[in-house]
């Protein structure tokens, strides 16, 4: 292996996010994937699981062994379910690896909230060490971080839509409404009835309304942006598309706030973020415009009659909502250019 390349392990390599991580890291100038770990299919070549990787990797799936991973990698990406990820993260952190966890295990700072939403936390002592991996909001804290909690896809789209207004003080942090559409890949690769083609192919439906487990994560991040408690009603929907998150977020403007201030807040946020594109007032993005890319596109409209602003935000749930975001975090933790491995544009049409 080229000594200039950092060896990384993909743990949970056979899911959609694991495959997307491999695709992005294969084009990264300073990374070499040296291990692919899975709970199933140990001993099978990764290219047998994902034929689109044929001829591009000779990695063979292996069982998790913390010592073996630590011997062969300096960075580990965890594309595992909540609960399982924390159990794997702890021994890797103890062995000095940089760990980027794509589960929810380290996103919530309050262990009581985590245990209310998910289950008993396997290693709560690590919660305060983890840095929330939305680079656009925590770039400085991520520098040199050894444990990164990569955000969820819904919280990413909603936070990028609402945080610039909250940070500027031109929108209220109470009673925010977020209605979001997700592509079916967000449900993972396991067989589930709602994800079957005949179930999801020609309809859209809400699920987990006002009770989805990403809601506390959103409120935590929006409270950080606002500098005061934020409350939010969240209604997710499953849409008949493979990829994508479309978030519509409505906020009450603070008295006296103007459309010009809304425009300025988003323009300033986008100027500091290479992967965020502000389309302007009156323009609204499509998930098709970001498919396969690490970009977020945002548009908005101001309702002067009601004193509200409606923001739409789109991302690819597997890239900016997962794998691409994790690679972006890796770049920042290592002090590399933020865009390395992520320069590719969207696949359109």
Task: Describe this entry's structure for a reader.
With 349 residues, this protein is α/β, with parallel strands linked by helices. It folds into 2 domains: 6-150 and 322-334, Rossmann fold; 153-315, Dihydrodipicolinate Reductase, domain 2. 30% of the residues lie in helices and 21% in strands. It contains 11 helices and 14 strands. A 7-stranded parallel beta sheet has the order 3-2-1-4-5-7-6, with helices on both faces. The protein has a 7-stranded mixed beta sheet with strand order 9-10-8-11-14-13-12. α1 (16-25) crosses α11 and α7 (153-168) runs parallel beside α9. The protein is globular and about 60 Å long.
Helix count from the secondary structure assignment: 11
Q: If you compute it from the alpha carbons, what radius of gyration comes out, rounded to the nearest whole angstrom?
A: 20 Å
Shape: globular
Structural class: alpha/beta
| Sequence of secondary-structure elements | EHEHEHEHEHEHEHEHEHEEHEEEH
Major sheet summary line? 7 strands, parallel
Give the termini distance in whole angstroms.
37 Å
Mean pLDDT reading: 95
Tally of distinct domains: 2
CATH class of the largest domain: Alpha Beta
Low-confidence stretches: none
Q: In a few lines, what is going on in this structure?
A:
The chain has two domains: 6-150 and 322-334, NAD(P)-binding Rossmann-like Domain (Rossmann fold); 153-315, 2-Layer Sandwich (Dihydrodipicolinate Reductase, domain 2). It contains eleven helices and 14 strands.
């Amino acid at each position: 292996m080229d000594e200039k390349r950092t060896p990384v392990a993909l743990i949970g390599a056979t899911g959609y996010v694991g495959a997307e991580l491999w695709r992005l890291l294969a084009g990264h100038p300073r990374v070499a994937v040296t291990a692919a770990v899975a709970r199933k299919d140990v001993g099978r070549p990764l290219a047998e699981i994902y034929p689109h990787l044929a001829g591009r990797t000779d990695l063979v799936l292996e069982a998790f062994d913390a010592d073996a991973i630590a011997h062969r990698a300096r960075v580990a990406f965890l594309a595992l379910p909540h609960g399982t990820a924390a159990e794997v993260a702890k021994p890797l952190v103890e062995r000095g690896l940089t760990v980027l966890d794509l589960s929810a295990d380290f996103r919530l700072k309050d262990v009581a909230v985590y245990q209310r939403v998910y289950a008993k936390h396997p290693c709560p002592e690590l919660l305060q060490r983890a840095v929330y991996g939305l680079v656009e909001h925590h770039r400085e804290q991520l520098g040199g971080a050894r444990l990164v909690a990569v955000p969820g896809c819904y919280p990413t789209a909603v936070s990028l839509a609402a945080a610039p207004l909250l940070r500027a003080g031109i929108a209220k942090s109470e009673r925010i409404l977020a209605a979001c559409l997700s592509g079916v890949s967000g449900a993972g690769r396991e067989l589930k009835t709602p994800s079957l083609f005949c179930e999801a192919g020609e309809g859209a439906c809400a699920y987990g309304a006002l009770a989805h487990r990403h809601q506390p994560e959103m409120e935590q991040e929006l409270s950080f942006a606002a500098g005061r408690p934020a409350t939010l009603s969240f209604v997710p929907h499953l849409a008949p598309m493979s990829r994508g998150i479309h978030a519509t977020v409505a906020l009450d403007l603070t008295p006296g706030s103007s459309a010009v201030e809304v425009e300025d807040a988003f323009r300033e946020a986008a100027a500091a973020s290479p992967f965020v594109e502000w389309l302007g007032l009156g323009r609204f993005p499509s998930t098709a415009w970001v498919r396969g890319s690490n970009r977020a596109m945002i548009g908005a409209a101001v309702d002067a009659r009601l004193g509200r602003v409606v923001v739409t935000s789109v991302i690819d749930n597997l890239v900016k909502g997962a794998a691409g975001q994790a690679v972006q975090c890796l770049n920042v933790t290592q002090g590399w250019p933020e865009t390395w491995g992520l320069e590719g544009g969207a696949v359109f049409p």
